[in-house]
Every structure is written in structure tokens, then in C-alpha cells.
Design goal:
By secondary structure, the chain is of the alpha+beta class. Among the domains are: 56 residues, Winged helix-like DNA-binding domain superfamily/Winged helix DNA-binding domain (Arc Repressor Mutant, subunit A, Orthogonal Bundle); 97 residues, no CATH class. 42% of the residues lie in helices and 17% in strands. The chain contains 16 helices and 13 strands. Helix 12 crosses helix 14 and helix 13 crosses helix 14.
Length: 370
């Protein structure tokens, strides 16, 4: 297969539905992606929103309220799964994802377990206390969860210790996110919120692999392994069972479920994606393919000035930061190189889509580059 530079990025943008036909709703986008990394909840809403059709006048894609509604309804839950961080996941997929990867994630958390002095007996007491405190539809804020743990005799359930105990309970299928109370996330009883339906671990891993390569391919086995915190042997077995096609690119063996899209016509495309968008954080082994092919890898900073990324034709070319003000969205940008006139025009269009999503009538766009 003869691929032009940047073709993998374009292929992935179509697989993820950042490009091409958008989904009818953000819920459909969640269902396709399976999991959206969301340690920062507000920016994370951009990921499903950008992949869904506009739901309000003046928007280029779905608005943030549509994503908030899914959280409030319990259609998706924000919880610890796949890796030791937050993800937002369709509620019907959560049990499958935890079955596939929770034990491995807990192993990664073992260092902190020991540092905090936590052992199996303490975790058993803590999870039992949280299960009882959330039973009957009670959704607890962090402060209320802390109080329940303290009442059960768990020493100092505050700060990072509390976060670690709650994450362990999430991975143990005891609690997951509940209905927010104002701006505060809550914790709900897992079995009351998540549909029943046990699944064997090998079947869960195979389903996770199917979802990953259908929504993120072409990607390597290591990309999948690290995304889902799996043993390499288990990931390889799942990929073999699925019978995925493969392509060789720059020394990587990339697997895919859908044929490459037709070559895109027209001028450059610039997308402003949040810092943990799946276009970037889904790929670790083949992460260099995410960087723009027009520039050497060495010019991309290890610590970018801003966290969120500017994608030029699907590849990272710089970073951005948005600061909402009363009637204006200030968008600061930094790029690893200067842009052509056509690229600047595409950059302005991308920033204007962002302005509309933030609900601001005006925009100030700052341009800076190396």
C-alpha cells in the first residue's frame, strides 16, 4: 500500500470521525470511541462534541450542554478505567472495560498502595463502606464519601489518600460517577447504575480490541496494549482472533478495520483539539506519526507552551490555549513553524469554530511560532 506523508493521520481522523460524516449525537461518538480520556472534564467534552453534528444555531459541531446531559442522565459515566486516570465511558461498556483491564491497572497502582499503607484488608473495608453508603440511589460527593470512610474506621480518608481509595473502588466495580451536585462530581453504587451482564475476560479484551482498531486504526499492537493496560500476549491474541488487516509504515506494523479514505481534496484543514483528545493520547508506540511530517521530530518541544493541540491536516503542528472573557474568547496559539496564507485562513476557521463552541460573540486570535 503506497501512502503519502501524513496519510496515516488522515486515515485516523476518519476512523475517529473527526473528519468525514459526523455522528448524529455525542452519545453516538462515545459509543464509537468507547472511552474518552477526561481527567479535565470541561475540555474533555470537546472530544465527543467535535465528532457530532451541530445541535444549536451557529455551531460547527455539538455543544457542551449535550455532553453534560449525558453525564446527568447516567448514559455515560466518568470513572477510572483502562489506565490510572479518568475516562468517560458509555455506561453499557464499563463492565466490559473493567473486566478486561482493571486487574492490570490495580497492579500499576501498587506503588501508591504501599506508600499510603493500604493493604487488601483495608481496601475490603473501604469498598464495603462505600457500597453501603451509596446503596439505595445515594450519590455522594467526595466530602460525603470521605465522611463515610472515616465513619467506617478508614484512617485519614482525605486528599490523595481519598482519591486513591475511590479509584480502587471504581476499578473494583463498587462505585462509579453519579449525578453531579452543582459543579461537584458524585459517586454512585456501581451495580445500581451499570447494567448487569458478566463477561469473560478474553471476550472482554477481544471486544476492546475490536472497538480500538475500528475507532482508532491504523495503530500498532503496542498502541492498543498501552491504551488498555493489557499484557502484550493478551493483546496479540485478541488482534489475531479479529483477523485485522495490516500495513507497514516507517517500521511499524499498523492494524486497521476500515480501508483508507479517498484522498482529501481542497485546502489545508486545521482542528483545535483538547489536550487529551483521542487523536493523540490513543497512540504511544506510533506517537511520532501524530507529529506533522513537514518538520523534523526534534523541533517539537517535550513541554509544549500550551496543553491543547493544533492539528494541521490531522497532525500536530502546535498548541493552543483558550481564555473565555465576558464577550470574547482569547485564543493563543504557538506553532513549530510559520504558516502559509492558506494555512492561516484554515487556522482562523478552526479558532472560530472554537469561539462558537464557547458561546462567545467575538474572538481574539494570538499568532506565535518558532
Amino acid at each position: 500500500m503506497d501512502l503519502a506523508p501524513g496519510a496515516i493521520a488522515s486515515w485516523r481522523a476518519h476512523s475517529q470521525r473527526l473528519w468525514g460524516e459526523r455522528f448524529a449525537t455525542p452519545m453516538d461518538a462515545f459509543a464509537h470511541l468507547g472511552a474518552v480520556q477526561s481527567q479535565e472534564y470541561q475540555p474533555s467534552k470537546l472530544t465527543p462534541a467535535m465528532r457530532a453534528v451541530p445541535d444549536d444555531e451557529g455551531l460547527a459541531f455539538a455543544g457542551p450542554k449535550a455532553v453534560d446531559a449525558l453525564i446527568e442522565q447516567g448514559a455515560v459515566v466518568r470513572t477510572h478505567v483502562l489506565r490510572p486516570t479518568w475516562h468517560t465511558v458509555p455506561v453499557g461498556d464499563l463492565r466490559m472495560m473493567l473486566t478486561a483491564s482493571a486487574d492490570r491497572v490495580k497492579q500499576l497502582m501498587g506503588t501508591n498502595d504501599r506508600a499510603f499503607g493500604f493493604d487488601a484488608a483495608l481496601f475490603a473495608r473501604a469498598t464495603a463502606a462505600l457500597a453501603e453508603a451509596t446503596a439505595g440511589g445515594r450519590h455522594l460527593t467526595r466530602e460525603e464519601a470521605s465522611a463515610a470512610l472515616a465513619e467506617a474506621g478508614i484512617p485519614d480518608p482525605t486528599g490523595q489518600r481519598l482519591g486513591h481509595l475511590l479509584a480502587h473502588a471504581e476499578l473494583s466495580m463498587v462505585v462509579c460517577s453519579g449525578t453531579p451536585k452543582g459543579a461537584k462530581q458524585t459517586y454512585a453504587n456501581f451495580d445500581e447504575r451499570v447494567p448487569a451482564g458478566p463477561i469473560a475476560q478474553d471476550e472482554a479484551i477481544r471486544e476492546l480490541a475490536r472497538r480500538f482498531f475500528a475507532s482508532r486504526g491504523p495503530a500498532t499492537v503496542k498502541d492498543f496494549t498501552r491504551w488498555a493496560t493489557l499484557k502484550v500476549a493478551d493483546a496479540k491474541a485478541a488482534v489475531a482472533d479479529l483477523g485485522l488487516e495490516e500495513v507497514q509504515v516507517e517500521g511499524f506494523t499498523l492494524y486497521f478495520a476500515h480501508e483508507p479514505p479517498a484522498p482529501r481534496e481542497g485546502g489545508p484543514v486545521v482542528d483545535f483539539v483538547q489536550g487529551f483528545d483521542e487523536m493523540m493520547c490513543s497512540y504511544t508506540d506510533s506517537k511520532d506519526l501524530v507529529l506533522h511530517h513537514s518538520m523534523p521530530r526534534s523541533v517539537f518541544p517535550d513541554r509544549p507552551r500550551f496543553n491543547s493541540a493544533i492539528l494541521l491536516d490531522g497532525q500536530v503542528i502546535g498548541n493552543w490555549k483558550a481564555t473565555p472573557k465576558r464577550d470574547v474568547l482569547l485564543v493563543e496559539t504557538w506553532r513549530v513553524r510559520g504558516f502559509t496564507a492558506a494555512e492561516i485562513a484554515a487556522l482562523r476557521r478552526g479558532a472560530d469554530r472554537l469561539r462558537a463552541w464557547y458561546g462567545k460573540p467575538e474572538m481574539e486570535l494570538g499568532l506565535d511560532h518558532a
